[in-house]
Amino acid sequence: MALSLVNIGLVVVGLIVGRVAAAVASPAPHQSTCRNIPGDARWPKSAEWDRLNATVDGRLIATVPIAQVCHDPTFSPEECAQVEGQWNAAIVMTTRPAEIMTPWFQNQSCVAFSDRSTPCDLGNYASYSIRVSNADDVVAGIGFARKNNIRLVVKNTGHDFFGKSTGKGALSLWTRNLQHKELVQHYNTSYYRGPAIKIGAGVNGKEAAEFAAQYGYRFVVGSCPTVGVAGGYTQGGGHSFLSGLYGLGADNVLEWEVVTPTGERLVATPTKNSNLYWALSGGGGGTYGVVISMTSRVFSDGQIALASLSFNTTTVGGDDPFWASVGVLLSQLQPLVDDHGAVAQVSMTHSIFSIFGLMVPGADTHDLANLLAPLLTALSQTNSALTSSAISLVITHNSTYAGLVAANVEAVTEAITLPPVIGGRFISRSNWANNATAILAALRSTMANERFVVALTALNTQSAARLAKPIAPNAAPPAFASVYLSLIVTSMWDWHRSWADAAPLQAEYLEVVRPTLEAVTPGAGAYGNEANWQQPRWQDVFYGSTYERLKGIKARYDPEGLLYGLTAVGSEKWAADGQGRLCRK
Ligand SMILES: Cc1cc2nc3c(=O)[nH]c(=O)nc-3n(C[C@H](O)[C@H](O)[C@H](O)COP(=O)(O)OP(=O)(O)OC[C@H]3O[C@@H](n4cnc5c(N)ncnc54)[C@H](O)[C@@H]3O)c2cc1C
Ligand SMILES: *[C@@H]1O[C@H](CO)[C@@H](O)[C@H](O)[C@H]1NC(C)=O
Ligand SMILES: *[C@@H]1O[C@H](CO)[C@@H](O)[C@H](O)[C@H]1NC(C)=O
Ligand SMILES: *[C@@H]1O[C@H](CO)[C@@H](O)[C@H](O)[C@H]1NC(C)=O
Ligand SMILES: *[C@@H]1O[C@H](CO)[C@@H](O)[C@H](O)[C@H]1NC(C)=O
Ligand SMILES: *[C@@H]1O[C@H](CO)[C@@H](O)[C@H](O)[C@H]1NC(C)=O
Ligand SMILES: *[C@@H]1O[C@H](CO)[C@@H](O)[C@H](O)[C@H]1NC(C)=O
């Protein structure tokens, strides 16, 4: 795999708020409208936490941030070196309670790279987690949070870009251990007949794909093996290498098993609690209820091919030829995406263009070589240096989706870590058709100063090759229907820089990069799972025409606003006060 260029530098921040160390127990100014945090008079006493712990059979965990071993008085040189070496690795963060992957929300409160004399503070970490093993645990957690007026969050893997799976002083429902997997060979309802798979809310993409492959099926999952399936991914829409054939994750959901914020257990399907089904299928994670399991349509597995290639400014002889080649390549890629259901993931810097995975389900190596021929010809006609060997072209295939990903993609996607500043934008098919030159110029200017890099997913959820319509109408972002390129912009970062450098990068993204990209992509929107937490007009940009209906469903199932997340539906009613308490506006 040529480049793991998305190793763009990501950072994370951890937090510990010492339950004990929350030094100043300042009076809460808006007691009744704010959630209690440690130190507040109404924060539950330890006997109450013990009672909760007994209710959940000892599965209550007091948060100990992973980097505590890097700070006095618990500093341990060997253990800290180990934490530093794996800092922010998905496999580490996603398998522990309370850890999250986004540096901005880790906020440097307890990271492996700050001075050992800096106290390890909980900051935005949840104070306690319940290692959820069944719906009863969720009901207990919801009841405790309501009774004590404390913040409640749901954490599955912690991949969320917006810190939605964490919160200062929160009780966290940690769902990772809900690992049920079950094949339903003959799902039979008015809206679908055929094979399905039921998974617990903690199953990740790799686990779901491999389980399905074992029975000869494919499950629509994200490209990164550790991203959860039934959590923020499918609840936020969920694009996949398989979306050209089968649509989004949300398009394939048959039923959700859920505990609502009022503690009610429901099953939501297209015909039962259908409003809730609609909202959970794409209307955003952590908003309408706590999902226990999800049952989804699966598809026959089989031959599937993958190509990778890359070139750089040196190969092509400078910046202008580089951008000319990028333009030709992105134009030539579109027919593969529109007509053949291909999905490509691309990493770019100011000087490197790398398709680390162009996947075509149904094709073998020979088929994919044929499909790529026009693109390769156009590329070498644009720049004679761009021969197949100069671009390190590799074409491979496998008899299962899971096998192809494990052998060729996983090493790249699993190495991705997150930097402090992340943004995103869609480029629609009509944007590209009308204004490709201006779009390329905007991308070029975004990366020219070497402070930002870009990851692109090329896809068409309405491709001519698509094999199945959505199971039922759903709340997946309507803008997905028009997307050609989904963009993630990330800041360069390395952990040895001063944390003070993060805020100017965020300002530069918001004030320079974002408007530059928006100007050339009118009306395109952005993916609410892959964007910036300060996106202006986020209701319209992330949710579009679904927002008003989603707000109504939120109000019906979560009348007290127990579930909150930045940019989640209904979150405009809340804001943090100066000490990090979540308060009703
Ligand atoms: C490296 C990387 C690769 C990615 N690749 C893709 C991709 O290929 N395609 C794509 O579409 N997206 C992708 N994403 C974005 C991803 O979809 C989001 O980050 C998503 O929110 C992750 O969901 P999670 O449940 O794994 O994470 P978490 O951070 O644990 O949760 C995310 C949100 O969902 C809520 N949630 C989690 N579990 C539940 C539950 N059981 N019930 C209710 N709410 C719940 C949380 O409260 C939070 O609001 C990627 C992200 C990263 C970091
Ligand atoms: C909950 O109980 C278990 C089992 O007794 C114990 O190991 C754990 O430390 C307790 N959690 C808390 C937060 O006290
Ligand atoms: C990060 O911490 C600082 C205080 O150290 C605080 O002012 C700021 O709001 C925090 N940011 C986030 C995103 O929590
Ligand atoms: C599916 O359900 C319908 C209606 O209940 C029934 O008539 C039909 O035989 C079932 N099909 C299968 C394959 O079980
Ligand atoms: C650019 O590509 C060439 C192959 O054409 C490769 O040898 C070189 O290492 C690449 N340079 C960078 C900076 O990636
Ligand atoms: C297919 O996938 C399996 C499992 O990852 C792997 O062992 C095998 O090498 C792959 N085959 C090819 C041709 O890549
Ligand atoms: C094309 O991009 C320019 C900015 O370079 C913008 O002003 C214009 O509105 C865009 N036109 C269309 C049709 O998107």
TrEMBL record:
PROSITE patterns: FAD_PCMH. Residues 1-22 form the signal peptide. GO terms for molecular function: FAD binding; oxidoreductase activity. Pfam families: BBE (PF08031), FAD_binding_4 (PF01565). Keywords: Oxidoreductase, Signal. Transmembrane segments: none annotated. It comes from the Eukaryota. InterPro entries: BBE, FAD-bd_PCMH, FAD-bd_PCMH-like_sf, FAD-bd_PCMH_sub2, FAD-linked_Oxidoreductases_BP, Oxid_FAD_bind_N. Residues 122-301 form the FAD-binding PCMH-type domain. Belongs to the oxygen-dependent FAD-linked oxidoreductase family. This is FAD-binding PCMH-type domain-containing protein. The lineage of its organism: Eukaryota, Fungi, Dikarya, Ascomycota, Pezizomycotina.
